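Recap quiz, item 2
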Amino acid sequence: MNSNQYALLSSEVNVLTELLNDLPEENYIERIGLEHRLEEAKKLLEAVNPYHINKKMKLTFRGAPVVGSKAISATFATKATTLFTEAIAALSAGFSRELNDRGPIPDRDVHQLMITGTAIGSFGFELELPARDESDLCPDQSVVETAIEDVRKIFDSASNGSDDDLNDMIEDVQPRAIKKIHDFLDYLNEQNALCGLEFENHSFKFSNSAQLFAAAERLRDENFHEKNVVFQGKFEGFLPISRTFEFETEDKRHIKGKISKTIADPKELNHAWLSKSVSVTFREARIGNSKPKYILSAVDDIQDGLSVDA
Amino acid sequence: MFNLAGVIPPVALGESGNGDHRSPYKWSIIDFVSAFSYTKERRNILKGFLEYRLSIYQTGVVSGFQWLNGSFVTDIEVLEFRAPNDIDVVTFFELPTGETQASLAKCFPKVFIPSLSKQHYLVDGYWLQLGKPMTSATIQRITYWYSMWSHRRGDELWKGFLEVELSPDLDKEALKLLTDQEVLYNEQ
């Protein structure tokens, strides 16, 4: 059952309850019928595990390829929707592995969005997310749900946030996924189109083409700067769940950063390197003029260092 | 009869905004039986439906009309590769003189209790009494039935449905038509 169906069924239960409350006593036959409908609707609702309801999102478009809420260019709609779903697939796959610069996006079919209807308002589509794992009674938020929320936040951050805000937002997003998001916005810009996205009662829409253009530019490859930097110092801790580290440099600066997904077991780093003097190579990432983010990419990037204790 | 979505359209093609050829479409029981008796399973349901209507007449309810709905009035064989299981019916009825709804229900439970009418007649049947003062509560109930009958469960597609008068005389002809159809199909 999807979220629309669940909402309508819940609404039917409410309506039937009200109808029965307002039904005169002498309408005995009608009462039997409405009570039967209510019982059936309640049974259907009770059989649903709310955690297993298929969720939906809306993706709408405005601008040159769209005629109000009546029509949309088929060519534009096909390509724009494809680019958007590829971005979601890349983001989703990137949560669990490093993505190559080229080649098929892993698990694309598993993370596929399905068009289930049109979204009236401007013109767009209602997209259903993949079914949740029904063998798990209380599944966590799926990767596709997280990906859609992240895309909305990235649109917002790229439109309205500072470079630091955007850098914070995309620090866990793989470069190829960012490129896919950029490609989607770039296509809309090329077609003089705008988009809006709604999911789980949160929405974002680009107000005008200047805003969309600016967001696309900020997500362009050339706006990302990465380089390797070497520090001497010691690690103060590796947190395996959040995959973060804290590092004190020789000159007593404290650096917090991320542990790349290529490092399988961050816990082991505590055993091997905690509080030891090391020379470490971090990947330093900036977007625009943001503060740098530091990433530990590989275990081999940590080397025994000279003692830092005076 | 069905559009590309496999349902009766809510407004007939080419109909103007103030036209009356829109759902609920008024059909005679003869036209209904004739149009929907094209499979064995459907003929079986129609047989149950006609028996249901005959039982209604036997309660003294002879005046009113029915709104017909459910997979029976869609192209379910094409949409879901299955036969319909039953037919959904709301009967708008005039209460016979001297009766109450309670007295009717107690004397004729198979007709008036949905679980029993489904079991005996393959009819998922509901009711709304005509001839009483119109109140906001009545309008709410009519609105409910219209909203449920005019939208398909699952995707809430706006669709049409049929209205058939209670007509004891025409039902006899409809039953004959159905019987003739059965003989015809059995001979083929």
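DSSP finds eight helices and 13 strands in chain A.
The CA atoms of residues 93 and 107 of chain A lie 7 Å apart.
End of item.
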